[in-house]
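Attaching the record inline, Q. Sequence:
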Amino acid sequence: MGLPTDLNWARRRQQGLKPRIYFGAVSARVNSCPDTKLLAEAAIASLALCFIAGCNVGPKYNPPTAPAVTAYTPQPQPQPGETASSAGPAGVAQRFDSAGSISAQWWTLFHSPELNGMMEQALANSPTLAQAAARLKEAQEELNARTGATKYPTVTGSAAIEREQPNLSSYGIPFPNPSPFALLNGSVAVSYALDIFGANRRAIEGLGANRDYEKWQLEGARLMLAGNVVSAAIRQAQLRREIEVTRQLLAVEQRELAITEARNRAGGTSEADVESRKTTIAETQATIPPLEAQLDVVNHQLAVLMGKSPAEAQIPDLSLDALQLPQELPLTLPSALVRQRPDIRAAESLMHQASANVGVATANLYPQIVLSGSGGGTGTSFLSGGDVWNVAASLTQPIYNGGALRAEKRKAEAAYEAANSVYRQTVLEAFGQVADTLTSIDHDAQTLKARSDVAADADASYRIAQGRYQAGGISELVLLEAERQRLQTELDRTSAAGARYADSATLFQALGGGWWNAESASSFQVPAR
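Structure, as predicted:
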């Protein structure tokens, strides 16, 4: 509620009284006492002093301190072991580098032109990125609008023209009616809210934090898109290799069945051996349709990620052996990770916005002062009018509202505590994701090495069997059995290799993706701690 009080400076001076200043409505006309304008200016000057001495109430936001932990896992930093050179591209040794920089285009480290092409289309055509970019623009324009509306005075102009025809006879005046005339009015009004306690500044601060939140949401969407494309591409290459090897295995088993059936007809083996071979073939055949279905799903997923429908997208076929495993893996310290992960920065922006909202709710408990003034003139088509101006100041002070404003303040404080908890949870989950990925990479290397060793032994046995078969020492059926075992171990090695590629890509994503090294990230660089 307001406390309006009219000021009549001329009358008080005529009565010999000293003028008093009220926070209320102040107005004057040019035809009033000459001192009126000076006294109104004095009132405005006194209120300006209050503005100059204004302050921001509520908490001052300070970014969270860097975590004190220096490692992600309780055990020593895992170091993937080296694998044999015959294990293929996925069997190279990997080393962690805590000083290594993460490229903003980290997927190029796999050296796959097909993968790079799909990523380029995904970044250019993704509706998810377009939506996030539009929300960022919306938040920026909202900040611009609120800043312009509260930081600077509001100036409005108005003009009106009316055509009038007075009827003197209706007033009992026995004269002819005058000719119609035009009534002209024009004025300019200026108003400005004195942000003495910082309510507007805190509101702008909160909108700036919301803009930052949308910025990090956009970076997070870009990082998620890149991670999904790389993971789907690796999965596609793995499935294609598994289908290829499975079909080779099926061909070997069908040849074994043909030999067994021929021996059965000759009385050299039992019918049970034939049925056993048929069962093995049926089991192998049953594994191919699910693999093909998974391959179709992955290709459809890649099409959607690239911003196209599955029917129109041209998805290239990737080869798992053509991918190169990054040999140097970055390992960011936890203190730096909180400045690199977009999801952590987004949670921090929400906490900043919640802190600013506490300031807004606190400032609403104090008076609000608005200065306004206007000037203009009136006249007719045959007679010039006079100039009119006014200056006013209004103060609004909450007196009683049933405790609503203080409840709003407590609500804002609770929201800040909740945002703080969300930030801490986001940090912990990020640390957990990095720890899981590091552990997986270590286990992937060990698993791949073991699978590669088994595959190498099976391949050596097959080569020995080939030599013995050519020398007439073993039958074709024994040779085919050695080949079947070799193909089976190749399936296991392919699965392990795909997991190692995927987890290596996940590490780049878990560490933030290197967005700060992109040219467009100049205004959002990782600050020095």
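The mean pLDDT is 84. The beta strands are 95-97, 154-164, 181-194, 328-330, 368-380, 384-396.

More tomorrow.
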